[in-house]
């Protein structure tokens, strides 16, 4: 049973690594960003409420995000482990997640911080803007997302460090290199890849 959280600035590679790690460890990846984007695309009520915040590079209000994650974590596939990508992002979201996990006799095993220089993430997102045309990858919006990250999400790093669950990973390098760094750090914490454990 593995409960992981990926935290880091926009463009650090959270979404990219989440997909790989979820597959490798056999747990569902839950990305609040992906859930919001799919709601925006399908023009649901939640999507209509989230869109303006996302386009501006602001966090979607905690009330909406917490309600969404409560429902998602209560689904049966999340009972035996989960990889959280981009949630929690604020202190209020940490309180919500703590209450949910405590209520279910669960806890986060490891919080993986992806550490990346702001100039590099801006460059990565500039490239993605060209390739995918995401409305929040415009350079001015990306700079604002970095500010929001510094103000609202960075304080969570100290909080998890004080709890003794934080692992810092250098997110600069190829996608494979970063995955290998994460799996090695998790192995050091006693979380092995299911295949390796049965080999
Ligand atoms: P997210 O979807 O979480 O967007 P993000 O922070 O930019 O991370 P993302 O996963 O997209 O980027 P990644 O680093 O993988 O959030 C989007 C918006 O949703 C937020 O601004 C907010 O409005 C809202 N939201 C989401 N969660 C919320 C919450 N909990 N509370 C409130 N609001 C919330 O990848 C970036 C690029 O880098 C990709 O193109 C990738 O291909 C590339 N890349 C990755 N690894 C690389 C590597 N090693 N080398 C080179 N390029 C790499």
Terminal Cα span:
18 Å
Biggest sheet, spatial arrangement of strands: 2-3-1-4-5
Radius of gyration: 16 Å
What portion of the residues fall into strands of 2 or more residues?
Answer: 5-15%
Q: Could you state the order of secondary-structure elements as H and E?
A: EHEHHHEHEHHEHH
Structural class: alpha/beta
Query: What is the number of beta strands?
Result: 5
Description:
It is a single chain. By secondary structure, the chain is of the alpha/beta class. The chain has nine helices and five strands, in the order βαβαααβαβααβαα. 59% of the residues lie in helices and 13% in strands. The model has no long low-confidence stretch (mean pLDDT 94). The protein has a five-stranded parallel sheet, sandwiched between helices. The structure holds BIS(adenosine)-5'-tetraphosphate (B4P). BIS(adenosine)-5'-tetraphosphate binds next to α1, α2, α3, α6 and α8.
Task: List key phrases describing it.
5-stranded parallel β-sheet, 13% strand, globular, binds BIS(adenosine)-5'-tetraphosphate, alpha/beta, 199 residues, 9 helices
């Amino acid at each position: 049973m593995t409960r992981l959280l990926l935290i880091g600035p926009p463009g650090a590679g959270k979404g990219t690594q989440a997909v790989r790690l979820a597959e490798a460890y056999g747990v569902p990846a839950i990305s609040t960003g992906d859930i919001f984007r799919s709601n925006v695309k399908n023009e649901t009520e939640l999507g209509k409420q989230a869109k303006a915040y996302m386009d501006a590079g602001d966090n979607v209000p905690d009330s909406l995000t917490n309600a969404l994650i409560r429902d998602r974590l209560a689904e049966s596939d999340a009972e035996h482990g989960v990889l959280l990508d981009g949630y929690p992002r604020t202190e209020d979201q940490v309180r919500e997640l703590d209450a949910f996990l405590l209520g279910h006799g669960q806890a986060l095993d490891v919080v993986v911080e992806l550490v990346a220089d702001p100039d590099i993430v801006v460059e990565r997102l500039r490239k993605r803007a060209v390739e995918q045309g995401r409305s929040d990858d415009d350079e001015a919006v990306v700079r604002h997302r970095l500010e929001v990250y510094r103000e609202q999400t960075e304080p969570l790093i100290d909080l998890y460090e004080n709890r003794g669950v934080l692992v810092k990973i250098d997110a600069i390098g190829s996608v494979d290199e970063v995955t290998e760094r994460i799996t090695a750090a998790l192995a050091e914490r006693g979380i092995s890849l299911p295949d390796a454990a049965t080999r």
